[in-house]
Design a protein that fits this description.
CATH topology of the domain at 395-562: Rossmann fold
Domain BRCT: 1-81, 112-212, 297-389
Shape: extended
CATH architecture of the domain at 395-562: 3-Layer(aba) Sandwich
Keywords: Repeat
Number of strands: 22
Strand order of the largest sheet: 15-14-16-17-19
Largest sheet: 5 strands, mixed
CATH class of the domain at 395-562: Alpha Beta
Region (Disordered): 625-666
Biased composition (Polar residues): 641-661
Protein name: LAMI_0H07756g1_1
Distance between the termini: 83 Å
Number of helices: 20
CATH superfamily of the domain at 395-562: BRCT domain
Length: 676
């Protein structure tokens, strides 16, 4: 599979060393070439700063170069990792370009080109008649916005002590209060043609060729003549963009320079002209119209199909109704199929238990919202497959003891996935979310704690078409995904996971049919009215097993116990919060509560003792208690020791011990320190 940057050479300028290494790694992974020298083979210039010799040279001499910043490459890399078509091969706007390299350069030029005036602050002053009516303030403001300025102000000039953004003042009249204020701030005073030339060139031109003091009185055509030496190439590119096409509308053997910047800043206007232009007699009648055709096909996905929406919330029902009717179908929220025409489908939520659906024999088929999402994803009315049918019911899974790791108290089966993308990735994630609390846990990463790996059989080309996995009742899970080209990133990730299982972590590898069979067998138990009974399922069954370690059949036996709808509450709706009655609260707040009056006069409390005296008495009580406790504890030892206890002195009158009086004054701080 060809990578998007294959054949394209990138050159950096003014990128920090760490950022340059990161950008080079991403470019190489995307198939491109990274060169630190600006040679004639370079196609894209990665700009870290416009104040470099490389950037100035490219602006003056290389109209064929596409200028981007590192953020654009990061965005492309993330899209490529997520499986998006970054080359826009299927996009009607770029489909006419046959070569993958030329198409990718066109995408870079039109969608990711660095804006000429990015992060600039532009003040626009007076515009006189000296410009000959070629430009006015309104046109300059629009051009500034198209060039990506940070701000554009044409009404007043605000003095700032420090400019944190590159700032210029644009006018063709070198006098006035605003011009003088800008001069005092040290801002360059630039002629209005600078903005128009930057937009036309698609890059930032130097100020020195447009200084108002140097170009005052010169002819319009001579202003900024030395800022760019490739105006002929620029005009040739603009003229080619203005041409609507020839013959079959597909350019043949176009040079790189004519492809680069094909639409430039006039791309939106040109594209609108192409879409709405009148057909010419000289044009070929076989000119394709992919845009109009795709819209018509998309609007008729559900033609002659009627859906009865049931068990959804009001908001979800409204969204489904709009989507179905917009795509040519009919829908109702009443389960009445007598008034329907064509095919009639009962549309129910995917997490609605099958035993709670009731009698569905009046409808042709019963599908979940997965069916609508799959049809929209593949842009056609698909046959009802195992993804789209109702499957959900509640159960509890007991997995094999062989998978229990030594020394762990594991209760759930840890499951990882690989090879899924698009709508299949969305739906397998939802199913695993439903299984939370039923004995299965979804693991985003494959590691040694993972017990089994679920793989998308449609992405696995090594399984032959004659294999049982491609012809059993769950083979419809992989019919549509098998037709889609798998992104190389997903394919490499899937290969690494399989190699990890084969070499380091030997666990079963199964298809999603195993999960659907869990639901199916639990549903059969409930249909037989044998609640809490147990049935078995084997992980090494050939109907869903891709790889499995050696062992007996019973080594991979799982037990399924059907549970009632009340036992598992992971999918129950949260209780509705009580909405406060603001009207009642307002009435209550407006109601005046009468002020209560005391019956008699309240006399102030008179203290009999001061605070200090109370604390002194409390300290004495505490000391007496401590002394009495110490005397009782040491009384048996008085006859054995003759040493006098420190802190105790003999009373001269009666010979008894008394506490030593404290030398500190009893204050609030002292009371807090002694802990009373």
């Amino acid at each position: 599979m060809q990578k998007p940057f294959e054949g394209i050479t990138f050159c950096p300028t003014a990128l920090p060393e760490e950022l340059s290494r990161s950008v080079s790694r991403k470019i190489i992974k995307l198939g491109g070439t990274f060169s630190k020298d600006l040679t004639k083979f370079v196609n894209v210039l990665v700009v870290g700063s416009v104040a470099t010799n490389k950037y100035r040279f490219a602006v003056q001499h290389r109209d064929d170069l596409v200028m981007v910043d590192s953020d654009a490459l990061d965005a492309i890399y993330e899209l490529w990792l997520s499986g998006e078509d970054v080359t826009m091969e299927s996009h009607s706007h770029f489909a006419v370009i046959s070569g993958s390299k030329d198409r990718m350069l066109e995408v870079l030029s039109e969608r990711y080109r660095l804006k000429p005036l990015k992060n600039f602050c532009v003040f626009i002053g007076r515009i006189t008649d000296d410009c000959g009516g070629r430009v006015d303030v309104a046109q300059l403001e629009k051009a500034c916005n198209r060039c990506g300025v940070q701000s554009c102000n044409s009404r007043h000039f605000v003095k700032e002590p420090h400019w944190d953004k590159p700032t210029v003042f644009v006018t063709d009249y070198p006098h006035g209060a605003r011009v003088e204020a800008a001069r005092d701030q040290g801002l360059p005073i630039i002629h209005p043609k600078w903005i128009l030339d930057c937009e036309r060139r698609g890059a930032l031109l130097e100020f020195s060729f447009y200084q108002i003091d140097d170009v005052l009185g010169e002819a319009w055509e001579s202003i900024g003549a030395g800022a760019c030496f490739c105006w002929s190439d620029v005009e040739q590119r603009i003229d080619k963009n203005a041409v609507s096409g020839n013959g079959d509308g597909k350019p043949q053997n176009l040079s790189q320079r004519s492809i680069l910047g094909k639409y430039g800043s006039h791309g939106v206007k040109l594209w609108n002209n192409v879409l709405h232009r009148e057909p010419k007699a000289s044009e070929s009648l076989e000119t394709p119209e992919p845009a109009a055709k795709s819209v018509a096909e998309e609007d008729m996905i559900f033609q002659d199909m009627n859906f009865c929406i049931a068990y959804f919330t009001e908001r979800h029902s409204l969204i489904l109704s709009k989507i179905i009717t917009r795509n040519g179908g009919g829908c109702t929220d009443k389960t009445d199929s007598t008034s329907s025409t064509g095919s009639t489908y009962l549309l129910v939520p995917s997490n609605r238990p099958k035993e709670a659906l009731g009698d569905t024999t009046a409808f042709g088929q019963v599908v979940t919202e997965f069916y609508i999402e799959r049809c929209l994803h593949y842009k056609t009315a698909l046959p009802v497959d195992s993804w789209s049918e109702p499957f959900f019911t509640r159960f509890q899974l007991n997995f094999p003891h062989r998978l229990v790791r030594a020394g762990s108290e594991q209760t759930n089966l840890n499951v990882a996935i690989t090879g899924f993308q698009g709508v299949e990735l969305l739906h397998i994630s939802k199913i695993l979310e439903y299984l939370s609390g039923m004995g299965i846990t979804f693991c985003e990463n494959l590691n040694r704690q993972t017990d089994t790996l679920l793989i998308n059989l449609g992405s696995l080309s090594s399984i032959p078409e004659t294999h049982t996995l491609r012809h059993n009742k769950y083979a419809s899970l992989f019919v549509e995904s098998q037709k889609v080209k798998v992104n190389q990133v997903f394919r490499n990730s899937m290969k690494r996971k399989i190699e990890f299982i084969k070499q380091k972590h030997n666990i079963p590898v199964m298809t999603p049919g195993f999960l659907l069979e869990l639901f199916a067998r639990a549903s059969k138990l409930k249909e037989a009215s044998v609640l809490n009974s147990v049935t078995n399922i084997y992980m090494n069954d050939i109907n869903w097993s891709v790889l499995c370690p050696k062992g007996n059949k019973d080594d991979y036996k799982c037990e399924i116990r059907a549970t009632s709808s009340m036992e598992t509450s992971s999918l129950e709706k949260p209780a509705k919060r009580k909405i406060p009655d603001f009207h009642a609260e307002q009435q209550l707040s407006n109601h005046k509560i009468p002020r209560l009056q005391p019956e008699g006069n309240i006399e102030p409390v008179k203290r009999s003792v001061s605070w200090g005296k109370m604390m002194s008495e409390q300290v004495c009580k505490v000391n007496e208690l401590q002394n009495s406790a110490s005397e009782s504890e040491t009384e048996p030892e008085d006859n054995l020791h003759t040493q006098v206890t420190y802190g105790i002195q003999k009373d001269g009158n009666n010979g008894k011990s008394s506490p030593v009086a404290s030398s500190k004054r009893l204050t609030r701080q002292v009371i807090r320190q002694i802990g009373v």
